[in-house]
Amino acid sequence: MQNFHQPLGMTRIVHTLAVLALWHGCLAFIYVDPNPRPIIYPPGYDRLAVEMAISRRSPDGPLVWTLSGLREGDIMDDYSNARNVIRDTNKLWINNTVPFAFAPGYTNEQMVEIIKGMKLIMKGSCIKFRSVKIGVDKDFIYIQPLSGCWSLVGRQGTGAQTVSLMPPTNGSTCVYYGVAAHEFLHALGFEHMHDNFNRDDYVTVNFTNVQPKYYHDFDKISKKDYTDFGVPYDYDSVMHYDRYAFSVDPDDATKTTIIPKDPNAVIGQNDHVSKRDFKKLNIRYNCTDFL
Ligand SMILES: [Zn+2]
Fold first, then answer.
1. One matching Pfam family, short form (predicted)?
2. What fold is seen in the domain 24-33+45-290?
3. Which of 69, 163, 207, 285 has the fewest CB neighbours in a 10 Å radius?
């Protein structure tokens, strides 16, 4: 009689090795954190509303991460730490290396898609994503299938550091390589482009079309905490939101919230890391071979 009771653990290991074979250099490691750090959501955070908004999002709707219910949509603040940390070298990843692990709950295809986001960053910089070595690496990114797509900004120095990438719900998902790359850039120390201190020279934020509860999501980043290293403003940045971010009605084409001063500018892409994104990343992490 055939044994239908294959141990699941073994199946998972075999699948993980398959991912490894496809993406050598990026081992997909599934890890259950024995001492998870509690995630403290901001006051008023509504998990069900986030899941609903993402599941109802139309394909040409707003960028998926803007629906995640946190500051600027997708930034989880650790209230014990200063934010907008890109100037703070303590928040960088040591030796340009970002150890990572997946929490259980992703399919192999989803892990491959997320790893594609890492590969995208690795291709144009000296940043290295690799599987965490438990007991050796103090800090690592812990990719979890929670509600919404979000990340903290910079390395927090607290061990397992969550990046949430919600799996598909009725088609809309955070598990897309460009979304993953956006969230990983937050974890590497990036803030949003359209909130840069000089943004008013390049875009107009039309507050009449912004839902009032999201006004603060357009607060500019302070020059004290953040620098663009003199790299010019970048409409093409993967960290730039789209024209309908936090709109009162994103389905109404007239209700734009971010209007580029350059009429030909395209904003809100999530398919690539721009040249200027890479430039800043490579300056920040001293990737001299890529500059
Ligand atoms: Zn973001």
1. Astacin
2. Collagenase (Catalytic Domain) (3.40.390)
3. 207
